[in-house]
Amino acid sequence: xxxxxxxxxxxxxxxxxxxxxxxxxxxxxxxxxxxxxxxxxxxxxxxxxxxxxxxxxxxxxxxxxxxxxxxxxxxxxxxxxxxxxxxxxxxxxxxxxxxxxxxxxxxxxxxxx
Length: 113
Description:
Strand order of the largest sheet: 4-3-2-1-5
Radius of gyration: 14 Å
Helix content: 40-55%
Structural class: alpha+beta
Shape: globular
Number of strands: 5
């Protein structure tokens, strides 16, 4: 098992209560989005507008609003591909989840992420 069910559900509830909140796209995620959603101008910052749980294999995912108006097709990404400001009230919990999940995935796969 990758995720701790109790800790994960608690984090999801905390994130849901804080919606919407800002996030930044990782460079690799920006590249993937550009290849799949054209034409699109990617901002430096986006908003997480919905939290989804994709089971133990998929983990916590976020629906993003890239343009401030949520007018495009939904973009749903793993939380591990997002960066959060250290001043975000949930930063420590999210960062802990991301690090734990990446570590477990690497261990499970026996290789890099």
